[in-house]
Amino acid sequence: MSTVQGARARARVEVTAAIKDEARRQLAADGAAKLSLRAVARELGMVSSALYRYFPSRDELLTALIVDAYDAVGEAAEDALAKQRTAASPTARWIAVCRAVRAWALAHPHEYALIYGSPVPGYTAPETTNVPASRVGLVLISIARDAHLGKGVAPPKPPARLLVDGERMAADFAPDLPPAVVVALVAAWAQLFGLISFEAFGQFHRVVEERDAFFAQAAEQLARSVGLVLPA
Amino acid sequence: MSTVQGARARARVEVTAAIKDEARRQLAADGAAKLSLRAVARELGMVSSALYRYFPSRDELLTALIVDAYDAVGEAAEDALAKQRTAASPTARWIAVCRAVRAWALAHPHEYALIYGSPVPGYTAPETTNVPASRVGLVLISIARDAHLGKGVAPPKPPARLLVDGERMAADFAPDLPPAVVVALVAAWAQLFGLISFEAFGQFHRVVEERDAFFAQAAEQLARSVGLVLPA
DNA sequence: CATTTAAGAGAGCACTGCTCTTGCTTTGGA
DNA sequence: TCCAAAGCAAGAGCAGTGCTCTCTTAAATG
For the HTH tetR-type domain, which residue ranges apply (chains A, B) (predicted)? Predict the structure, then answer.
């Protein structure tokens, strides 16, 4: 697919990309609330109505940016893992991935807010975001799987009803992981983004100063909570 | 203070309250992005320019709602603690407070998003929000203090630079707590809101179904991470 | 009672998302 | 090759927004 179609089609993907780029620029500068279709069009030298040939509404443009943002964090996480895949211990890999996600968030706070802050559009995230949204989670799962194939400290056993959830999730994502580990992983996943969100959204202002060290410490504790053993 | 001033002054506080109430209604209905000064004024039977006698801008109105929301969660947490103060173990109190905060968030998702989601206004939260914003944190600290005055499992020792942060925070909020515990508390605080935010913002959609049990399990793990011992 | 003060009403500015109609250009089939 | 069909840009226009003025009326103060 994407064979050499007519020049018209190529122009279309270029304009589409230009719109997204300019929108991302404005997003990074002023935040999602102030992203204006008219301003994007103005900056691109076209009239606002022309932009509707490419994105049927402002929310659709935002959705496109959301998908791109999910892919960007996901890629950051996957790259961090790839760089450490063979050498380091599972715990070191876990911490490296956590660090990478945090670094991306702090470097792109508005894009981060778009995906992990309050949902901006009419409350329902489109289905197209589901796959890119799970990339970071899958990276974390893969680290835990590698670790638990060897030895690993089992997390505390959850009650039976929760284990049902854990089994279903394990069936979907990691058939060889014990359900209790999957449950702990999901919790760690949410907690990781709690740490990052508080830092990115300014909740640590005048509270935590040594943020790198603080985050490293917390990421280590998260690794422990999913049963990864610490290097001596 | 607040002595019986003229009837005009009383009308002012009443109108101010009515504006905030209507704004809160619209916030709960459609979210912060769609909160409109003109719509609030319209609903109250006044003209939009009159509203500016009470709030100098839309952001100031939002700030007032933010302060109220912080106070509401804070009160929910304090009430939950008060109900269990004498009877239950520190761990049970911790979980009760966590549950109360979560319940408030799920009951008022838009107000929750206002304070723990992406920062809406021009990036700087006013200083007036600082005190109400710390109420939940103070409740968590007080539970840990009660527990650690007796016995408690010390969290892993952070590196020296981080301990400096911990000592400063301890000096501010809990002089009798070991710095390492304070550091762990702040991490648990952020992680708690990570769990709640993911649930409130729909990130657990089609992932976690047994959310009550899941949250209880995670809250228990958080208690453990700050050194609270579990009841046998 | 006179005067200062506060509040509401209304018009208006600059902006937004979005729709509709009007022309122009590229495209693909006869 | 020509011609209809489709894609695209432009412009006007609608309804809505935050916010700022001016004007008038009602209350509080001296």
Answer: 13-73
Which one of A118, A120, A193 makes the best mutation probe of the B interface by having the most chain B beta carbons within 10 Å? A118
User: Measuring CA to CA, which residue among B125, B38, B93, B114 is closest to residue B229?
Assistant: B93
Buried b / exposed e along B24-41 (16+ C-beta atoms within 10 A): bebbeeebbbebebeebb
pLDDT tens readout for residues B179-210: 999 999 999 999 999 999 999 999 999 999 99
Written as one string, the DSSP assignment of B23-88 is: HHHHHHHH-GGG--HHHHHHHTTS-HHHHTTT-SSHHHHHHHHHHHHHHHHHHHHHHHHHHHTTTS
d(CA A24, CA A114): 11
B 62-121 residues inside an 8 A Cβ radius of A: 113-114, 116-120
Q: What is the pLDDT of residues A104-148, one digit of tens each?
A: 999 999 999 999 999 875 556 677 888 999 999 999 999 999 887
pTM metric for this prediction: 0.95
Give which of B106, B1, B20, B15 is closest to B60, Cα–Cα. Answer: B20
Q: Which of residues 36-55 of B touch strand D (CB under 7 A)?
A: 36-39, 42, 48-49, 52
Residue located via tokens 């991306």: A104
Q: Is residue B148's pLDDT more than 80? A: no
Tell me, yes or no, if A173 comes closer than 8 A to chain B by beta carbon: no
Chain C footprint positions (protein CB, under 7 Å): 6-12, 15-21, 26-28
Q: B156 in helix, strand or coil?
A: coil
